Amino acid sequence: MMASPSSPTIPLTCCSSSSSSSFHPSSRRTKFELPAKSQRSPPSLITSRVGAPDSPLSSIAADAASSAGDRVSRRRKLISVAATLPFLLQLRGYVEEGIIADAAELDNDEYTMIKEEVRKVVSKAKAAGVLRLVFHDAGTFEMGENSGGMNGSIVYELERPENAGLKKPVKILEKAKGEVDARRPVSWADMIAVAGAEAVSVCEGPIIPVVLGRLDSMKPDPEGRLPEETLDAFGLKKCFQRKGLSTQELVALSGAHTLGSKGFGNPVVFDNSYYKVLLEKPWMSSAGMSGMIGLPSDRALVEDDQCLRWIEKYANDQNLFFKDFKNAYVKLVNSGARWRSL
Question: In what ranges is there compositional bias, type Low complexity (predicted)?
Fold first, then answer.
């Protein structure tokens, strides 16, 4: 949902071997000593093997012997492979595990480094704008076209009306990204995804783990993909469905509006006040500024039976809200992402 530059709120709507030698039995030549009464060599295969012209019978016998030798050789090779296969598979496993372990260690170091730098620049007062940046980058994802999503393209889209006010959080994260890039390059997509999770944590919300490895887009995403703040509940559900998000995830992610200056409790504390205020429907009152609380899309949620069921659950159980928000956030920042290989 689009917030005006002067009143940062969180997005959702458009405001966002070895081989054996062959063994041939016929190749072993034996010197025969014949009886004294006959010194002639008999017309046998043996004499033909030692120099007599080949006969059809000798060729057939030789071929048969060679074939038998080949079968023995193949069997020996198979036995050799069978004997070494377990070792090779185990070795492969060790190598793969080693690669994965090394990659995980590198990612963990990078993750820690990003979080540390983000914490230096993101305060409670700046958290709402940073979190809104996440929704407006990831919110362009469309399943049908398999495009958009968490790809850092927001840095090319800052002049769009729906992204008004997002230059400031980008500027805030530029400093942290520069510090990280000096040691190991990080994509804008990863930077923004981690920063949003840290913004929630800074404001006393749930700790959200973020996997790294997203690649950045080199061009802006198509326009008109963020949900408009004037949509009713039916329109919102349809819009989120195209992004692969359920009604429950829509309501959980909308809870991000608890941060910012739209009247949902303490603007710098991430809790379930958003849902409690929705149930009170203060905009129905003509007193004071109550009509300014929330966006039209926020108010529409409480008028929908499916959404209302989740609003009531989260209003009564903050831990459930935290759990569901964390899961929905992880799904959101992974949507449409292209990943680097190991």
Answer: 1-25
- For the beta carbon of residue 327, count every other beta carbon within 10 angstroms: 15
- Other CB atoms within 10 Å distance of the CB of residue 212: 19
pTM for the predicted model, two decimal places: 0.71
Q: Give the rounded distance of the alpha carbon of 246 from its chain centre.
A: 19
Query: Which pLDDT tens digit goes with each residue over 1-55?
Result: 444 444 454 545 554 443 333 333 333 343 434 334 333 333 333 333 333 444 4
- Using CA atoms, how far apart are residues 229 and 132, in angstroms rounded to an integer? 14
In angstroms, the CA 88 to CA 18 distance is 13
The separation between the first and the last C-alpha atoms of the chain, rounded to the nearest angstrom, is: 36
Classified as helix, coil or strand, 199 is helix
The residue with tokens 């009143």 is 7
Tens of pLDDT, residue by residue over 116-144, are 999 999 999 999 999 999 999 999 999 99
> Encoding tokens for residue 63?
């071929």
Chain centroid, CA 151 distance in Å:
12
Residue 73: its H or E element:
helix 56-121
Exactly one of 126, 136, 237, 326 is catalytic; which is it?
136
Compute the distance between CA of residue 282 and CA of residue 265 in angstroms, rounded to an integer.
Answer: 12
Contact 318, 274 (CB under 8 A): no
Query: Angle between the 318-334 and 124-138 helix axes, to the nearest 10 degrees?
Result: 50
Q: Is 257 designated active site?
A: no
Cα–Cα distance, 180 to 117 (Å, whole number): 7
Half-sphere exposure of 132 (CA within 13 A, CB side): 33
Q: Which residue has the tokens 């496993």?
A: 93
Separation of alpha carbons 206 and 40, rounded Å: 101
| Residue 177 CA from chain centroid, whole number | 21
